[in-house]
UniProtKB/TrEMBL annotation:
PROSITE patterns: HTH_MARR_2 (PS50995)
Organism: Pseudolabrys taiwanensis
MF-aspect GO terms: DNA-binding transcription factor activity
Sections of the chain in a coiled coil: none
Protein's UniProt name: MarR family transcriptional regulator
Biological process, per Gene Ontology: response to stress
PANTHER family on file: HTH-TYPE TRANSCRIPTIONAL REPRESSOR YETL, TRANSCRIPTIONAL REGULATOR, MARR FAMILY
């Protein structure tokens, strides 16, 4: 056999693919002809969409004299009340925030007369939250506007599109904590004091 000629055994093996150092993603399904340009555009559009949704929430909240956090808690309470009693932890889970943040917003909303809170009948450490008539009135005032906004935002999409997007967004929400942790660890390792 000639020297350096591949054998049957070496022909079957393929060398591990090397990731180009300038790629921001290595998952092959997101590379187009070995490039991540389409993926980068998608991420930029995603950040723009998220920023737009945050701005929309602030504008809606401001229109009824609430902070974005208070508005989010009112909406979450409204949504969750349709399923049963509502506690701080359920609101926190719905909004993907810490329970302490919800507790602070609930306190403000109770002072504004938009929510009531009462002790949980079976858990002395917990409270139940409920919209007051004033809270329901704000939502009744906003509902026609929300309907118009949502109709515009989601027009042209099928329920199956929304289901796929919902799974994707849920994954991002669940995974973002780990991604933030990775970014913070990188920052900590790369500060001038860490390199000494």
């Amino acid at each position: 056999m000639a020297k350096g000629r591949p054998t049957a055994k070496t022909k079957r093996r393929s060398a591990p693919k090397r990731v180009k150092s300038n790629l921001t993603v290595s998952l092959p399904q997101f590379l187009v002809d070995g490039s991540d340009l389409e993926f980068r555009k998608f991420v930029a559009d995603l950040f723009a969409a998220v920023a737009g949704m945050h701005s929309l929430r602030r504008a809606l909240a401001s229109s009824v004299g609430l902070s974005a956090a208070e508005y989010s808690v009112v909406l979450a309470t409204w949504h969750l009340q349709k399923k049963g009693t509502v506690g701080i932890s359920a609101i926190a889970k719905q909004l993907h925030v810490a329970a302490a943040n919800v507790t602070a917003a609930v306190g403000e909303l109770v002072e504004k007369g938009l929510l009531t809170k009462k002790p949980h009948p079976r858990d002395t450490r917990a409270v139940l939250v409920e919209l007051t008539d004033d809270g329901k009135s704000i939502l009744a005032q906003l509902t026609p506007l929300l309907r118009r906004i949502n109709d515009r935002l989601f027009s042209g999409n099928k329920p199956s599109d929304i289901a796929i997007l919902a799974r994707f967004v849920q994954h991002l929400a669940d995974e973002s904590t780990n991604s933030i942790r990775m970014a913070r660890a990188f920052a900590a390792e790369n500060t001038p004091s860490a390199k000494k």
